[in-house]
Amino acid sequence: MNECQVIQRLSEANKMRLLRPSIEHIPAYVSALRKGWSPDNLRSEAAQEQIESIESDAASFVSNLDDPSAKAGPVTLPDGSKVPRLPSIRRWIWDGEFCGHIGLRWKPGTEELPPTCSGHIGYAVVPWRRGEGLASAALVAILPEAKAVGLKYVEITTSPDNPASVRVIEKAGGALIRTYVAEMALGGHETLEFKISLTA
Fold first, then answer.
1. Contact 188, 182 (CB under 8 A)
2. 123: which of 17, 109, 129, 165 lies 20 to 30 Å off by Cα?
3. Which of 69-73, 160-164, 182-186 is modeled with the greatest confidence?
4. Which residue has the higher pLDDT, 62 or 8?
């Protein structure tokens, strides 16, 4: 089965679409934040910060989510420190409602990432829609965008204590390449790093 067939099968099973963030769908995003979902798996306070940012200037908030030129300013790490933003795009996982998000970040001209960046792709599904295959479908669906920005492979990290995330990555073709301890700025916890080739 080729990549297109995998995407089609996963998408049909879930009726899942990846949407570019928009003002049209911002109420559904805010609703998820207010229900307790956080877009940052390492910083639960990010939810309240984003609610405040949307209330202040929703148009700028939406615009900065899709940021291939890294214009939105520094990124706040779990320890509160700030690092330069990488070029990135964000897509909302949509299946009749807002179900979570998936993001891609990269450093132009190389697959290498700074030590304070935990992988090329990150995702978070709202708790009430987990276990439906949405993260797997979203991960497979965003891989062509990673290839389009010139990446030959992507690295994705997760915790050994998160078997559901491990399954998501493995379903998309991820192979475990190492176990390491993350930078203290990222929490200093044990981390699994997977690699998905985009050249096959």
1. yes
2. 109
3. 160-164
4. 62
Closest CA to 28 of 124, 103, 119, 100: 100
pLDDT for the residue 3: 57
Distance of alpha carbon 167 from the chain centroid: 16
CA atoms within 13 A on the CB side of 30: 15
Q: Express each pLDDT in 10-25 by its tens digit.
A: 544 458 999 999 999 9
